[in-house]
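User: I'm putting together a small comparison set for a docking exercise, and I want a reference complex before I start. The sequence is below, and the ligand is flavin mononucleotide. Could you produce the 3D structure with the ligand included, as structure tokens?
Assistant: Of course. I'll restate your input first, then give the structure tokens for the complex.
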Amino acid sequence: MSLKDSQEAVSDHLNHNSHMATVAAFGQQHTSVSMYSATTVVRAPESVVRGRWSPAVHGFLGEELLLNHRRSGRDLGMQLGVSRFYGHDAVLSTAHSDLAERVDGAIALPPRRRLRSGLTDTVGTRRSGRGFSGKPVSLEELATVLWHAQGVSGSLPVPTAQDDDAAVALRNAPSGGGLYPVRLTVLAQHVKGLAAGAYAYQPHGHTLLPYPPTSRPVDWSRQLGTADVEVDKAALALVYVYDLYGNSQKYGDSGLVFALIEVGGISQNVHLARTSLGLIGCDQGGYDKQALERTLGCDGTSRHVVHLTLLGHGEA
Ligand SMILES: Cc1cc2nc3c(=O)[nH]c(=O)nc-3n(C[C@H](O)[C@H](O)[C@H](O)COP(=O)(O)O)c2cc1C
């Protein structure tokens, strides 16, 4: 085919599919470079991309991470970090992670409901729902979601010379090295039998630990709000809190990457369970990370809010 033929073929195609010209223009605009990017006051993602080739413009932090993220079994530093965790002290620490849970003041959750809907149906009908009704969810529904998200359902024996019975409690969502660095916090708003407030889910005991009464109340509309959702009508929010040192001590920079993957697994379990229960839910990218961290007492250095999911009943 000659250049002329192919040009004609392209214009013929665009004449019959005019929307493709818009699609092509959008794709091309991200490849053009702007010399003004470095002096742009607000760094919108597009202006960062446009200035990418200028030495004065720093790229995305994500790009820095990926450029510096070495993942190889031959990386000696990584191997040293990992092998350290085969030591009996690290093994025993992982096996006894239940000791980190508080018993006094913890609220026992009802046992999870056994969900009967088929996996194929549940996966296929899971959709993000934003039209919350304000109707409360029951404690059993909350317990069922939390158990599917992060409940303990297995055990891996790791006998050591000091403790023949040592075993790591395994949860429903996978985690690198069984370290489980992501903690679920429940922000309850309309949950029957549960006062409004923040609670940490404790998977070993299947309990909720109330945050100290001194902690600041969550300002739902300012901290969690997006234009798409009336957050006041959601029954609750699940906040995913990552403890950086919970797994970076073993995996180095891969710790963050692993944690974000783990958050995806946990939140998928949340969505499948709530779909099966007939609840609606929506992940939220637009929450105020720093404000929420201040409210929850996360230092924003080693403990970070990395994700948030709203749950509740939908409008009839
Ligand atoms: C990390 C993440 C952040 C999201 N943030 C928002 C959000 O802020 N507001 C919203 O309405 N939907 C949000 N969503 C939901 C997506 O819009 C939704 O998953 C997508 O449109 C696909 O639709 P579905 O989930 O119904 O299949 C988010 C989803 C993910 C995974």
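The first strand starts at residue 107 and ends at 108. Residues 127-128, 130, 226, 228, 282-286 surround flavin mononucleotide (CB under 6 Å).
User: Thanks, that's exactly what I needed.
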